[in-house]
Specification:
Blueprint lengths: L1 H6 L2 E9 L3 E8 L4 E9 L5 H15 L10 E6 L4 E7 L6 H8 L4 H20 L2 E2 L8 E4 L2 E4 L6 E2 L20 H4 L6 H18 L9 H10 L11 H10 L10 H5 L2 H4 L2
Antiparallel strand pairs: 1-2, 2-3, 3-5, 4-5, 6-9, 7-8
Helix pairs in contact: 4-6, 6-8
């Protein structure tokens, strides 16, 4: 692998992390004269539908995305030995899950600064007809103070009229909206909005809003609505935004455009 990548101008460095089907390594790009991240996928170790359905979809989508809050994919390389390498922009400061683990509940201004960037990234995606379908803290990386959304494995391009409903369960149960968990045909954009609510809750409370170890019980908790720990002193405006995002009825849940205009986010 090292020789193959070197021949393409990338000097491999340390391992940054591992996913279910991949290993991500740091590398130095001789062409760009900067460090990059390379996701290495071994075709032999992944299920057929990942190679034939999700991966081509991901590649098609990521090559069209260009936003400061989304990890840029520079190129894809295929080795003769059946490895696929995605050369990406590097985010050196970990993901926001680890950040919250380290820092504990974030003060509102810090949570707002991060969440605003997630809103920008998701707004750009939805506006381009792309739904992410796996929004979670581990997929929001940090480069200094800049949030960079990544992992478009489950992303989907919506048809031009954007009327398509989905039945597919994607992503993590802890971040899944009630309609997604129940397999009810749903608007995936509204599923993304729910997951953003879970992310905002984690930023502010450093814990999960719902316990996902028992799904029927979790569905019940979701219907009852979210409650925030009183001792954290979370403002009324922020609680209002959390309730809007974690609205169990998807038809009442706001679009990303409406979310972006919420007073908690437009506050200086
Ligand atoms: N562009 C990047 N810059 C820095 N680190 C990255 C980058 N992309 C991924 N990583 C690191 O590599 C790890 C594995 O990433 P990858 O996208 O392959 O899998 P995952 O999404 O975490 O797992 P899974 O595929 O099982 O959902 C991540 O947790 C992250 O820490």
């Amino acid at each position: 692998m090292e020789g193959f990548l070197l021949a393409h101008g990338y000097q491999l460095g340390r391992t940054l992390g591992e996913g279910t089907y991949s290993k991500v390594k740091e590398a130095f790009s001789q062409k760009h004269q900067k460090k990059v991240a390379i996701k290495i996928i071994d075709k032999k170790e992944v299920p057929e539908d990942f190679i034939h359905k999700f991966l081509p979809r991901e590649l098609q989508i990521v090559k069209c995305l260009n936003h400061r809050n989304i990890i840029r994919v520079h190129e894809m390389l295929k080795s003769a030995k059946g490895k696929i390498c995605l050369v990406m922009e590097l985010a050196e400061d970990g993901d926001i899950f680890d950040y919250v683990l380290r820092e504990g509940p974030l003060p509102e201004p810090r949570a707002r600064a991060l969440f605003r960037q997630l809103v920008e990234a998701v707004w750009y995606c939805h506006d381009s007809g792309v739904v992410h379908r796996d929004l979670k803290c581990e997929n929001a990386l940090l480069q200094g103070n800049t949030l960079k959304l990544t992992d478009f494995d489950f992303a989907k391009q919506l048809p031009r009229d954007r009327q398509e409903l989905s039945w597919t369960f994607c992503g993590s149960t802890a971040y899944a909206a009630p309609e997604v968990l129940q397999g009810i045909p749903h608007d995936s954009c509204k599923g993304d909005i729910w997951s953003m609510g879970i992310i905002l809750y984690i930023l502010l409370c450093a814990r999960m809003p719902f316990d996902d170890t028992n799904i029927p019980q979790m569905l019940h908790q979701q219907q009852k609505g979210v409650s925030v720990p009183g001792h954290l002193g979370i403002s009324k405006e922020c609680q209002n935004l959390l309730r809007m995002l974690l609205e169990p009825d998807a038809t009442l849940r706001p679009s990303i455009e409406v979310v972006s205009r919420h007073p908690w986010l437009t506050n200086p």
